[in-house]
Design brief:
By secondary structure, the protein is mostly helical. Helix content is about 80%, strand content about 0%. The chain has two domains: about 35 residues; about 220 residues, MetI-like fold (Orthogonal Bundle), CATH 1.10.3720.10. The chain contains 13 helices and no strands.
Length: about 280
């Protein structure tokens, strides 16, 4: 009986490992192919798209920054992403602190409203959002699109961070109040340091969302000098239908991918632990 159970466990383990290996290949291979192709000449790309590059053709990256203006779009993306994260942290930390630490009449109602907001995708509201912002002269503005990004990410961030806030022992807060800290001082000096794993988690999720966002940026940003990386990359892809500089296109794709891959590689443990702590304790 035991041998049959062990044999079944071995078969199940082999199947799981095979699925994981196949999944890894499916995910990693396109990324590696993209990186290798970014070093090829146009002739190599057209003649042998699946072969390794014959050398490191760095001119593709130079062309991506100079001719395709990827560097210019990158500055806009960094600016919009940083602004969005700052606004998101300000709103989500203060809101989740109140919702998670205090009981008042509308507490459950507000929490439920934020829960409903998690299921509202930006693509569903892009037209009324554009009409509203256009009537208020808020369109084609990097600050206001940062506010929109932060607000759309707010429901999930508050949901995650509120669960984490509830787990912090109230004794820390009472001690701070006795020492003369007000509500704001307690939040900044006590709650924020203790909630750091949850704050890091929502910051990482926010970065991924803001850095890669496409439909809202395409709709709300019309000036060429204000467009973000996804829009610039889409424009570059459109241009390549009638041009021949495919190497610059793949170099641009790598430039967009590198920040997300690097940040995830450096923070994936904190991201996983923050999600587990918020989910289990909440």
């Amino acid at each position: 009986m035991r041998s049959k159970i062990r044999g079944t466990d071995i078969v199940v383990s082999i199947i799981i490992y095979l699925i994981l290996i196949i999944n890894t290949i499916v995910v990693v291979y396109p990324l590696l192919w993209n990186v290798f192709t970014s070093f090829k000449t146009n002739t190599e790309i057209l003649e042998n798209p699946w072969y390794l590059p014959k050398g490191l053709n760095l001119i593709n990256y130079i062309n991506a920054f100079t001719k395709a203006k990827i560097g210019y779009y990158s500055v806009n993306s960094v600016l919009v992403t940083v602004l969005s994260i700052i606004i998101l942290l300000f709103l989500s930390v203060s809101s989740s602190y109140v919702l998670g630490r205090y009981k008042f009449r509308l507490n459950n109602l507000i929490n439920n409203i934020y829960m409903c907001g998690i299921f509202i995708q930006s693509i569903f509201i892009v037209i009324p959002l554009y009409l509203m912002m256009s009537s208020l002269n808020m369109d084609d503005n990097r600050f206001w699109i940062s506010v929109v990004y932060a607000v759309l990410q707010l429901p999930f961030s508050i949901y995650l961070l509120t669960s984490y806030m509830k787990t912090i022992p109230r004794e820390y807060e009472d001690s701070a109040m006795i020492d003369g800290c007000g509500h704001l001082g307690t939040l900044i000096k006590i709650i924020v340091p203790l909630a750091k794993p949850g704050i890091i988690t929502i910051t990482i999720f926010g970065f991924f969302s803001f850095w890669n966002e496409f439909p809202l940026a395409l709709t709300l940003l019309s000036s060429e000098e204000k467009k973000t990386l996804p829009i610039g990359l889409a424009n570059l892809m459109e241009i390549q239908r009638y041009a021949t500089d495919w190497g610059a296109l793949f170099a641009g794709l790598v430039i967009v991918l590198v920040p997300t891959v690097v940040i995830y590689s450096l923070t994936q443990r904190k991201l996983t632990s923050g999600m587990q702590m918020g989910g289990i304790k909440g």
